[in-house]
Amino acid sequence: MKRIDAFVTGGTGFIGRWLLPELTGGGRRVAVLLRDNPDGRHRLAELREWVEARGGRSDLLHGLAGDLTRDDLGMDPADLALARTASQVFHLGAAMSFGLPAEQARQVNVRGSERVAELAASGSSLDRLVLVSGFQHRRSSKLATSRYHDSKLTADARVRDIAEATGVPLTRVHPASVTGDSRTGQTSQFWGWPDLVQALHRGRLPIVPGVRDHRLPLVAVDHLAKFLAGAPELAETAGGQYWLLHDTPPLADLLRIVADELGVATPRLRVPIPLAAMSLQAGLDRWTGISAEALTFLTAQDLPVAEARRVESTLGLTQPDVAELARVTARFLADHGFRPAAS
Ligand SMILES: NC(=O)c1ccc[n+]([C@@H]2O[C@H](COP(=O)([O-])OP(=O)(O)OC[C@H]3O[C@@H](n4cnc5c(N)ncnc54)[C@H](OP(=O)(O)O)[C@@H]3O)[C@@H](O)[C@H]2O)c1
User: Which of 92, 133, 177 is the pocket-test mutation for ligand 1 (most atoms within 8 Å of CB)?
Assistant: First the structure.
């Protein structure tokens, strides 16, 4: 293969997997950065099956061995040259977890993002770099800090600086907490929002973290994937940034919808975030299964969604019903024992 249309990092991840059928289904030749591990071949075969099963074209999907933590993304010269032919670069690769070690946050999320931006800048026909950033808002509490969150904010600023300095057309997307597929609830992410759902299911969520207006904004993974695939096709999204979330009700209401679906009791007592964070840090995190870091994804702010809504409308994307989204995701999680399927 001499040329590709899109180079994707994080293609094996939760969101990346949903993006690949969208890209290849539309005829784009896609190369995915695959971590150089012993089962690399098996991973590509598995990814191709996934893509084919969701209406994508596996014949347009290729794997390039590499790693975000290495110079030139760890790619050999031929693969690097191929990656540089891409007109679109999608950067989704990241280390995501609570309690993320500092060095991993720096090497994967910050330096890795810089490396991808540099690669995009050296491309021969680059038309767009799409950065999947983070859900960015001021923290709800000083007690609930997140190294993941901080590294994503730093990466976002660094990539923006590199793009400005090198003339790379950049589109930044800031998704809220990503749930499963809007029709089936299917997800491969079992932490974050799923931790709250699981605690509720086990009768271990006696309180609602946050006061009246606190929300945990959600976005469905299929909706996000369609947005990511479609946005760089529009000239007006160059230089834009988009907060992607559905109109999510306050957390207390969202939990009630999920509790009704799962047939469990709804917590009523609202506890301010600092107090909830302190209680979790004092040991309640083990009993509930909820990390204090999860509280960094709650917000009482209104996020600037108008630009994203305009692009969604141009792309013909409609908002799923959030109550139904919460219900199908909760049902999927419960039916799967809140655990990824054994591979
Ligand atoms: N999920 C959410 O709720 C959410 C919300 C807002 C923003 N985001 C952002 O969206 C992006 C995708 O998230 P996700 O939920 O799909 O994450 P994920 O499921 O954890 O996937 C992470 C991806 O990054 C890859 N990766 C990690 N370290 C790497 C390294 N050193 N070199 C190469 N690849 C590496 C992983 O590859 P392996 O398969 O080899 O591990 C995987 O493909 C991330 O940037 C994340 O910060 C996610």
Answer: 92
Best mutation site among 35, 110, 196, 329 for ligand 1 pocket (most ligand atoms within 8 Å of CB): 35
Distance from residue 190's CA to the centre of ligand 1 (Å)? 13
The single-letter code of the amino acid at 85 is: T
SS3 55: coil
Per DSSP, the three-state class of 122 is: coil
Q: Does domain 87-335 have CATH number 3.40.50.970?
A: no
Tens-digit pLDDT profile for residues 62-86: 999 999 999 999 999 999 999 999 9
- Cα radius of gyration rounded to whole Å, the chain: 20
Q: What are the sequence ranges of the domains in the chain?
A: 87-335
Q: Angle 225-230-233 (CA atoms, 0-180°, nearest 5)?
A: 150
Mean pLDDT of the residues in the chain: 94
Which run of H or of E encompasses 9?
strand 6-9
Task: Give the mean model confidence (pLDDT) for residues 204-228.
Answer: 94
Q: How many angstroms is it from 1 CA to the middle of ligand 1? A: 26
Return the closest-CA partner of residue 171 out of 258, 243, 250. Answer: 243
Beta bridge partners of 37: none
Q: In which residue are the tokens 């289904």 written?
A: 25
Nearest ligand 1 atom, CA 152: 47
Task: Using alpha carbons only, give the angle 17, 124, 13 rounded to the nearest 5 degrees.
Answer: 15
**Beta-carbon-side half-sphere exposure of residue 181 (alpha carbons within 13 Å):** 10
String of DSSP letters for 303-332: P--HHHHHHHHHHT--PPPHHHHHHHHHHH
Distance, CA of 180 to chain centre: 11
How far away, in angstroms, is 109 Cα from ligand 1 center?
A: 9
